Amino acid sequence: VKELGDMPEFGVIFKFNADYDNVQWYGLGEAETYADRKKGAKLGIYQNKIVDNIARYMVPQECGAKEEVRWAKVTDRKGRGMYFEMAEEPMMFSALPYTPHEMENAMHPYELPQIHYTVVRVAKGQMGIGGDDSWGAYTHQEYLLNADGKMEFSFSFKGI
């Protein structure tokens, strides 16, 4: 729908109990990566705590994405949790303690709610972040999601 503008992401969001606070992934890392910000990242197996994926920006905003992920695990301290794997091509994956809505509606980090869950996002793709300059440069065309036609993706997830 042209009136809606650019599609920011094409994926699925899951909410888990906050006890699932560990993430491990085989993809680009170790820091966050985006379609237009991944050239310096290395393919490997990485792990951290979910809260470590929150960027310490002055104004909370989109953060923590992992590009070209082949598989990812979100687990509790005993190693129980969920395993995610994309069927045909790598996925964008993120695991954060807040929803995109919660981060977008907080003007300062102290306005974020108390952590009650882990928010996992599995996506075919996410648009780039743009910002080539400090005065509002838009995302380059090649890093936007092409939503002109039918979009689909498949992935699997199972308990571990």
Number of strands: 9
CATH class: Mainly Beta
CATH topology: Beta-galactosidase, Chain A, domain 5
Class computed from helices, strands and strand pairing: mainly beta
The CATH architecture can be given as: Distorted Sandwich
Largest sheet: 5 strands, antiparallel
Low-confidence segments: none
Helix content: under 10%
Radius of gyration: 16 Å
Determine the number of helices (DSSP H or I, runs of at least 4 residues): 1
Principal-axis shape: globular
General description of the model:
This protein is mainly β. It has one domain (2-71, 90-147): Beta-galactosidase, Chain A, domain 5, CATH 2.70.98.10. It has 1 helix and 9 strands; from the N terminus they run βββββββαββ. The strands form 2 sheets. Strands 3-2-5-6-9 form a 5-stranded antiparallel sheet, with no helix packed on it. A 4-stranded antiparallel sheet has the order 1-8-7-4, with no helix packed on it. The radius of gyration is 16 Å and the shape is globular.
Structure, briefly:
The protein is mostly beta strands. It contains one helix and nine strands. A hairpin with a 5-residue loop joins strand 5 and strand 6.
Could you list some keywords that capture this structure?
Beta-galactosidase, Chain A, domain 5, globular, mainly beta, 160 residues, single chain, 1 helix, five-stranded antiparallel sheet
What topology does this entry show?
Blueprint (H helix, E strand, L loop, with lengths): L8 E9 L4 E8 L12 E8 L16 E4 L1 E5 L5 E6 L4 E6 L3 H5 L12 E10 L28 E5 L1
Antiparallel strand pairs: 1-8, 2-3, 2-5, 4-7, 5-6, 6-9, 7-8
